[in-house]
Amino acid sequence: MTSQPRAFFTLDLGSATTSAALVGHVGGRWRLIAHTSAPSSLDVEGVLVSLLSRVELADPELLAELAGGERPIVAALAATWPRLEARTTPQRRIAVLAGSRRQRRRLEEAALRAGWLVSGGSADEMDLVALSRMVLSTRTSAVLLGSDRSPAGDERRHLPDLAALAAAAKQLRPELTVILAGGAAAFESTFAGATDTGPGPELSSDPPRELTAVVSEAAVRATEATDPVVAAQPEASAPPEDAEPGAEVTTWVADVPAPDDKLEGQSKATPDAPPVADLAAAPVLAAARDSAVFPSEVDRGVSPQILLAPDAGAGEPAGASLQQVLEGLRALPNDSRLGIARSIGSLAYVLDRTVEVVEIGLQGGLRARSEPIGGGHSAVVSSHACFADASFSPADPSEEVIDSVFAWSTTALDRHRLTDRLHDLRFMPWGDADGDGAVFRLAAAKAACSRLVDATPELTAHPMPDLMVAAGGIFASIPPSVVALALADLGRRPGVGQLVCDQARLLGPLGAVEDEAERRRLLANLADDILIPLGCLVLPAGVKSGRTAGKLRLQGTDPISEIELHPGAIQVIDLSPGRTARADFEFRDTVRLGTRGHHFSVDVGGGLCGLLVDLRDIPLRMSDRAESRRAALDAWQRGMWPGVDE
Amino acid sequence: MSVVERRSGPDFASALAHVATRRILVFSPTIHFRLSPGDRALVAPGDSVSTGTPIAERTPDAESVDAGRLDIEAASGKNGGAARAGRPTQDAGTSALWREGRLEAGEILPEKRSQMATKVGPWPSGTARHERRRPPEPGKWWVGGGERRGKSGKNRPVPRVGGTLLFEKQGRWRAAAGEHHQIVESPVAGIVREARNSVEVTIEAAGAAIPGAIAAGEPSRGYLDVPRLTDGELWASALDVGRAGAIVVAGSRISAQAISRARAMSIRGLIAGSVGQGELRDLEASELRQKASLAPSVPFGLIALDGHQRRPIATPVLALLAALSGREVAIVTDPPLLIFDVSEVPLPELPPDWIRVRSGIHAGREGRLLDTAGLYRFRSGVHLEAAIVRFVDETDTTILPFADLERFIF
Questions:
Q1: Interface predicted TM-score of the whole assembly (ipTM), two decimals
Q2: The CATH number of A93-226+301-327 is which of 1.10.10.970, 3.40.50.360, 3.30.70.1660, 3.40.50.2300?
Q3: Are A183 and A135 in contact (CB under 8 A)?
């Protein structure tokens, strides 16, 4: 009889990269044992075998212990150990139909924030043939027809035509999913004939788990108070019983145990809590087994249904309710991007810190924020947005995308050459990753990040988070100091925050653990292992130009460092990972660093990059002239990336 | 660097497993022809098509047209009395040009049709007559007169329009219809898997295909011409009228000048290692101008085998193309494929450790994989899994990221 394995794999199956990690139960807690990344074109089994072979080579006793005391056979372990999987949902296109330009823009914004590629058209701008062409294109997976709850005259007169057009399209393409938002739901009867022609074959044979034939508006409303991530997969978890019907939509309050049994991270151990191993092992392994079921359903398209959804103004902020419905429709059950958003919520609770994540991938990007609130920080408020356009190499880059890559590029390229390189990066996301290629990838990643930041002003309006996480395969191949610089360049809010990187890409798969308490326990164990500390960022606002901005005295290092601060520069002070220090700032002028003042004393943590004191402008001001801009970016980058010229 | 070459054993197999594989040949590929509102399929699922068979009819200038109350017309015998005659009302044109619904299944049709037809084509032979009698529904073919577009027929010939029905509202139908139509011929032989008016025609092609990375232009067919390349390139001046009707292998990159010249010389297509985005944009603009002029032109297709940045064509692919030289091939744009229906393809022999660099500063070079080098620090301080490679005609070895390599399989 074999004993229970005390290890499992996590797999983040991205479009460009397959990331595999081995998590084992060692010394009474879950630890990250090893991790690796490979191009997604390679066989997953081969990647796992390679990972285990390295563990065996480095520490055969550890592998034997994880295998339950048996003599480990790597191939057998790779095949039998449970897997916790998350995967990137392929990009999908939605056609947005509206009666007016104003309404179209609102609907498009909700769809874009839900991660869809969007083709939009309104009856007052485009003719019916053009709208039909958009809807009947085989690249379109769903149609969103929407209006205000009580449509005004400008859109009301067009709605019958648009509803008839959508119904006809549904009849021609039964595989289309149609969403009727707001007042357009009144035209549901128009689709009776369209659905009579028969649903798509997958619907009739295997109805999707998360969607019934018609989701009534009332049902959508009922989910408004729940976690948008959970609501995206209603089968995954029931809404919290204590959820208030009137609660905000994109912000959700997680269910929380009593403060005294609150699970705490490394800084807050609960002595009476049962051993994590006993609590966590079985459910986690069960979750891992469950996630292995998903791949059989992965290739399903968007379910061919007629859905009724709230209008584009519902929710807080406006459009959040519709975004939630559209996100649930787009994403696969174990979508890694939504998994990251879920994990960030758990992490914020476990670490009792505000956490923000920026994830950039080939199919899009994610920005999410979670903040503990309430008495004793017993609840967590989370919000997030996914954007297909925040891919580091969008499938069909617009002129704006090219411009944004130009703006962050430190090498002189003509426009055609840059466009060609960006397209080739999509063909071969792992290709040309060193030398010039690495510099170009950084520019593409920063451009994607800037698009993501621009698209989420409501998150930018919050203060700097305690913990800023960089995630996604593109950051894994770039030196850590440059990732830290990218985060400093893009998240420009005054404050002090720790910069970390999800190098092993565990946040997505851990988000596939359905039970919130289990996920928290796992993250409490693993947070130190999975989040690679890049450094601590100190970003004061209001630093005036001049010869000196003031002085920094770093206590806790030996000897005590005293450093002069220079306006307009980004200064790096060596502080290794795991070390903490007290930084006393004495500014010449009044600056804003949380509060306004001259003197600040803050606790800072170390990282691979150290302590970053960023005395550049907020927002970052650079010349409009391409050459000057490139020179400024290059100077900052060169300081953080010594090997860039090799 | 001295490296012992290992071309067998489990370690070498594991090293090869790190290299991305590229399939040179795919068999019986499925190809798509996207249709728009106003376009109709001329074939039905299950039909066999051969090269040149009309498979669809496009309406490039389709506009939204009020088709009227089709059910009432059918009952009252309006619109040519088609309903009383047992013909579908929406197919009931009165002009001799509009033969829709009047052909019998066995009627012999002209074998060759011009690329730019100005009349509605017939239903394909074998289409069941009851299919043509279906009640009006979205996507169904419809033919109507100019009066429906608000044009008076007084003192001038009434233009007739044809297209597909869009939708019905309060008993009245709207259609996407136009005066001009183009026949789309199948560039390959195969079996129709899906055919939906206004949506697409899908064909499972007979034969084999070389996959490409990018395709542009239109599906086309011609004999394969593999001229002598100079440093992997074909000079634009080599594209002369003697190559009319050919699909020409143009080397590592296609220039805008070569594309213009090839089109002017009635060349059917170009094949290259790469093509820039700027050249693709020029080609698209040129095609739009051509369509706007309504002047008939031969279809021209373009296929790039690797991507946008300059790379020579891989030698195994070039060897395969050379073996196919002079035979009929077809360029298909969705997905990008070069299709040929040769039953026996002379495949080049490749050593198992033969690799090609697909990106980076050595892009396009070929050689042999010797061993793995583990995690290696490359330029700019980037750490990647590395391979030890010996390029052709070199004695020294080179260390490259595995992610930059590819190997070929058939």
A1: 0.83
A2: 3.40.50.360
A3: no
